[in-house]
């Protein structure tokens, strides 16, 4: 009886882990894709945001998988190791990846600093 219960639990856990990770799915995302094309590759997003900028409409869609802590699934984007965001400008993909990747954060910081220095050096 105990072996049967263990087998059923093992099968359920294995079935729950059979989904394709978002980081793997994101390999099908490309620059210039539309939101509909991205959603057809990634599935429905867990979070969406948008804002207007001088360059146009900026949108972000985010996906992540729950993490298991013990036997408890925790659905938290910050804790997930399988997380992906896709950024759109005027309806077309302009960036994607893990928004919590430290190398990406450092690169964006350098870009912002360079832009600030360029603006400071302009004559008034």
What does this structure look like?
By secondary structure, the chain is of the alpha+beta class. It has one domain (20-121): Beta-lactamase Inhibitory Protein, Chain:B, domain 1 (2-Layer Sandwich), CATH 3.30.1450.10. The protein has 4 helices and 6 strands; from the N terminus they run αααββββββα. The model has no long low-confidence stretch (mean pLDDT 83).
Can you give keywords for this protein?
two-stranded antiparallel ribbon; 124 residues; alpha+beta
CATH level-1 class: Alpha Beta
**What is the typical, i.e. mean, pLDDT?**
83
Distance from N terminus to C terminus (CA atoms, Å) equals 82 Å
Instruction: Point out poorly predicted stretches.
Output: none
Count the domains. 1
What portion of residues is helical?
25-40%
Strand order of the biggest β-sheet: 1-2-5-6
Largest sheet data: 4 strands, antiparallel
Q: What is the structural class?
A: alpha+beta
Oligomeric state as shown: single chain
CATH-defined topology? Beta-lactamase Inhibitory Protein, Chain:B, domain 1
Reported CATH architecture: 2-Layer Sandwich
Strand content: 25-35%
H/E element sequence: HHHEEEEEEH
The counted number of beta strands is 6
Shape: elongated
Radius of gyration: 20 Å
Number of helices: 4
